[in-house]
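Hello Y.,

Per our agreement to keep a running log of every chain we model this quarter, I'm adding this entry. I've kept the format consistent with earlier entries: sequence first, then predicted structure.
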Amino acid sequence: MNQRPDSRPKRPDPLRWTWYAFGGRLPDRYGEWVLHDVTCRTWVLRHAARSLVQISPGLLFLLLPGPLWIRAMAVLGGVILALWYSLSYMEHTCEYRLHKHGYPIGAGRATREAAHAEERAKKASRYEEIYRNHG
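Predicted structure for the entry above:
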């Protein structure tokens, strides 16, 4: 992927982002942004936001006839269930998103792990010092 001079990936416009949120493939020029989107510090929140956009058409059920509380509880139940499944499979979904944009399967996980390798090494070292008997 091409590196931009300011090293910030090119973001898609709102229409393209909506297409992307529904699972569409963005043009190649957004490849770096897709990698950033599924590997940055807030990748879980970004995934949840995409999931909420995907289930937003379900809000139309509020327009059906009947008691509002029943319609609202049905929508709430659908949202909870949809988010449960979405968050359960988020790593797989993000890897597939990256694969659609030309990255190998596992690139997302490897990128996230590389970003935290030093921190994990420090924690492991502290653990060894505290809990392992060296005598």
